[in-house]
Amino acid sequence: MDTAEEADICRVCRSEGTPEKPLYHPCVCTGSIKFIHQECLVQWLKHSRKEYCELCKHRFAFTPTCWCGTCCKGGIL
User: What is the CATH architecture assignment of 23-76?
Assistant: First the structure.
């Protein structure tokens, strides 16, 4: 068995986070399903039409992710 620590991956697309596409943990899920890319979560929310995690039932928190204060359209943290 390999004891090397595995990198965190998105629970939707199964890819790692990058500086351009960081991983977030917008609910209280833990383990391998804790992380998700913002874009993946937005697509899933459009598909599911729910504002909460279907696994842990925690309501996702929507807050701006930019820092300039003028270009924000709302993001997920």
Answer: 2-Layer Sandwich (3.30)
Tally DSSP H helices, then E strands, for the chain.
1, 4
Q: Estimate to the nearest angstrom the gap between the alpha carbon of 30 and the chain centroid.
A: 12
For residue 59, give Cα distances in angstroms to 17, 30, 52, 63.
Answer: 22, 15, 4, 13
Predicted model pTM: 0.69
Interval 13-41: pLDDT, tens = 999 999 899 999 899 999 989 999 999 99
> Residue 49 region, left (φ>0) first, then alpha (ψ -120 to 50), else beta?
left
Every domain of the chain and the residues it spans: 23-76
